[in-house]
Amino acid sequence: MRLLTNLKKFKKNTAIIVKNNYISFGELDKQSDKLAKKFNKKNLAFLICENEIESILFYLSYLKNKCVLVLLEKNITEFNLNSLIKKYEPKYIFKNKKNKIKCKNFTKKEIFLNYLIFENKNKLNINIHKNLKILISTSGTTGNPKYVKLSEQNLSSNINSIIAYLKLNKHDSTITTLPMNYVYGLSIINTHLFVGGKIILNDFSVIDRKFWELAANHKITNINGVSYLYEIMDKIKFLNKDLSYVKFFTHAGGKINKQLQKKLIDFCIKNKKKIFFMYGAAEATARMGYVPWEYAKKKIGSIGIAIKGGRFWLENKKKQKIMKKNKIGELFYSGKNVFSGYANNFHDLSTINNLDILNTGDFAKKDEDGFYFLLGRSDKFVKIQGNRLNLEDIERYTSNFGVKSVCKLNKQNKISIFIEKNIDERMLLDEIKNRVTVHPSNFIIKKIKKFPLNKNFKISYNDKIFD
Predict the structure, then answer these.
(1) Which residues 6+ apart lie within 8 Å of 411 measured at CB?
(2) Which of 385, 392, 351, 188 shows the shortest CA–CA distance to 278?
(3) Which of 10, 78, 146, 182 has its CA at 20 to 30 Å from residue 297's CA atom?
(4) Average pLDDT for the chain
């Protein structure tokens, strides 16, 4: 795997900077080699990820050792962890010494830097496919038993395509803004290690002054984030800061407000920078599409074109390919980065399904230039009084006049519109009435204190608050 061989290629370069410690690629290679020798071949382990050097080293050691690593969130609950232990029966668990979570039927094997290594007391007999590398969860909670299986081919293919359109090289550097157990966060780590770039491991929030001091002191070349992070940064007027060291920004992880999108593009044009709006999923090892910088302003709202080595197309209800422009259909993707199947327990680890084709679950259309525009999730289309509505359209309508919302179909077959802002409900309903064909009595406004977020900083649509 070239990600590993490149550790030697760039051995004198600085790979990781954490708390004023500079760690070279050569040191990463040496330390991960040493760590890999501690574990049996072909085993499964849980890594409770943090933006620390230990997480990077455990990850690299497992890639070297032909083992499988399950990437778990830092704040996983004890209940969810032990539920996953029953399903997957890991040989080892790696966690920070500060993490007080208890692992049933595990004994502490040793300490590695600031991490503890726990070993399963039970005898295990798990059959693991030789090409399986990583298990990573979808955007749901970590308690969700469905994990995405990623192979060496999946990882390598996505790394190469991302590097191609971002034009990453050994002079690039980034700062962590996302967790490693989120496929977007993992892809940033993979691509920078692959090209010999630098990664500043950071645990500060983007609203913390120390985050921006770190970014400026190390002159990072790129900032990466989901919509929620850009919304927060916009509130603290981050574009007014000295960002002379930044070459480009990337955005992924769901829809972004068009007004904010335009603001970011205009800033980049004015200051000779770039921003890449991207589309992906855990099932695609991160990226499927991106908007080339030269089209960013012309194609606001688009997910762009397929990445190198990938292909998009649309299908109608009869599973026939749609050839006409601007016609709505289900979006499909094909590429070597398409995942190798889902895992619900350790029995699923013995097989690799070379799926190649992914039904994204999104409805979209393709314009005359070949750019794709999402129109909503297939599960967000509802029928009320004989009218077919897209709940995401209503969310977009409210965002046009500065109101963020979540729309859900309730048990009374009416649409609940959840909002944070204290606004005039009649005004909101009047705005919707002007755009939607069903009677306003089919809408109910519900005010909540704060939108719940999942571990990837996306709105958690399955939270009980929306019931």
Answers:
(1) none
(2) 188
(3) 182
(4) 91
